[in-house]
Amino acid sequence: MTSLKIAAVSLNTTPLDFSGNLKSILESLKQEETKDCDFVLFPELCISGYGCEDAFYKESVWRRSWNALEEILPYTKDKTVLVGLPVFQSSFLYNCMVVLDREKIVCIIPKTNLANTGIHYEKRWFHSKESLVAESYIPPQKYFNAGSPVPFGHFLLEKKGVLTGVEICEDSWTSNRPSQVYAEQGLDILFSPGASHFALGKNKIRYRIFQETSRQHRSLTVFTNLCGNESGRAIFEGGSFFCENGNLVEEGPRLFFSDYQITTYTTSLSELRSARAKEFRSSSPKEKLQIPVLRLESERSSSFILDMRTKSEKTNQNQSSANSLFDDFTRAVSLGLYDYLRKSKTKGFTLSLSGGADSAACALLVTSMKEIAKKELGDSIFNRLGVEESKLLVTLYQKTENNSELTETIAKVLTEELGNPHHQISIDSSVEEAVGLIQSQIGRKLTWETDDLALQNIQARVRSPLIWLLANLNGHLLLSTGNRSEASVGYTTMDGDSSGSLCPISGVSKEFILRWIDDIQSGNNPYISFKESLKLLRQTKPTAELRPLETKQEDEKDLMPYPILQEMERLSVFVGLEEEECFFRMKQSHPELDADLLKKQIERFTKLFRTSQWKRERLPPSFHLDEYGLDPKTSYRYPILSGDF
């Protein structure tokens, strides 16, 4: 009986941090879990970091990535290690996995299908080696191992009579998969190293892909992934797993806060090969591409210790009871905030707290980040980071005559419940001074009847330098509080409430934020308990509180109902429908809506979306959290100047 023990290592990397990334790789190879493994799989581009962007063009990035292999080689005496890095070959740059065995470089396997939609932009930097035909790679003289040719291309690796192959991330998500060819040559184990970003619900799709691959090919599929907020916007979720014969048989933690996590699985393959023999039939005679087989001669014993847990027990022990979208959202944003804190070496976060849902959500997420980090990394984690835990979050309520006593109370009660330092000031005199200076120059008085928008915006803009001053004094990052719904229609004041170093919630809609808060109040969130302040908050209508109180300003009156806005946004941006088709879709799903009113709301959304692109270009960095986003750098590119639809 042939048996193999395999480790899938998930890493939290940082672009261009060669020493830090290498340290995590080497530390994981020193652990007991990997010492007796036959194969150790690391994620895509784990040496350089996935998010190097145009720094990938620098020769120093390729050189330092390649030189890192020299330090990994001593750990491959009795195991095969697969690591990801960029490789420059024949005037082209490739996204590759390098196979190391017995202190030698066995081969280099390039990515075939490059991710180039949504937040991914790989075709800007990398060449796609569409042909599976192998060639040789000769490292330049300035690299170690100079002059020794290394096989470059697509291979099957044979070890202990077992055939393994590699697909790099997107290669496993397309119809043109290398594994289709591998399977016809007897593939036993498919390795899929990834840099697969987090999106709400995406992990379920990922499971289905690899479960079906393992069922179709009667093989073992091994997936591993980056984890954490690597380069500022994308959050990777970890979650290494093994699928065998259509079943998820082992799974590692997702959205963890540590530097790495190791997940292992031992397999005999006998059952898989038996199933393959029963079901695989030869096709009609034709010339087929033959993938070269590289034999890995290992001197280590084939003995192993069987894990006596059943497959069902392995699956169930890693199933979190909180697999909901809300739980994933909480953990993902918390992890993103934690990585921002430690990678930017800042002292915490400052937040302008308005008494509304968005700023409350940001405060709650910083608090959940603190609790999860302490639980996973120890109570002293913030001391080790040089952060004073009691000042991790500092908030400021900036009151004007247009703010209600209720929002003031909500902000005060929330900070008491969270236990963070909170300040409150009145900015009426600053607003009056700014308005007076302009009135003295234009020779007239500004009124709500003639200057409504300008008078609203000046309040938000006066708040900005004050909250920035407080953030600077604290040595903090300033959090901006806009959501995706506001970004889509430009419902934000530039250089006012849009100001910030980071906007943690602009990857989700206002509707989602409100449902998430309701989920907390229902007692379903394992990290945040019921808050009396949120009960008060949900009794109010969302409002900017920038007009006089007697006008009873509400966001949905200024815009449209948030559920309608969200549906219109999704149909227009994500699905890609034009106005007329959006109307027919929404009229079918909402027959109760007046047709003329719906048309006006769709026309209003279209106009606001088109004219607000310049605002989206200037919003703070944000996290990608949903199936689509509006960040023009990573999600949705749209012209600043455009005509009507």
Describe what you observe in this structure.
With 645 residues, the protein is an alpha/beta fold. The protein folds into 2 domains: 4-317, Nitrilase/N-carbamoyl-D-aminoacid amidohydrolase; 325-559, HUPs (Rossmann fold, 3-Layer(aba) Sandwich), CATH 3.40.50. 38% of the residues lie in helices and 17% in strands. The chain contains 21 helices and 21 strands. The strands form 5 sheets. It has a 7-stranded mixed β-sheet. Strands 5-4-3-2-1-16 form a 6-stranded mixed β-sheet. Strands 20-19-18-21 form a 4-stranded parallel β-sheet, sandwiched between helices. A hairpin with a 2-residue loop joins β14 (241-244) and β15. The longest helix has 23 residues, at 452-474.
In short:
The protein is of the alpha/beta class and 645 residues long. The chain contains 21 helices and 21 strands. Strand 9, helix 4 and strand 10 (189-194) form a beta-alpha-beta unit.
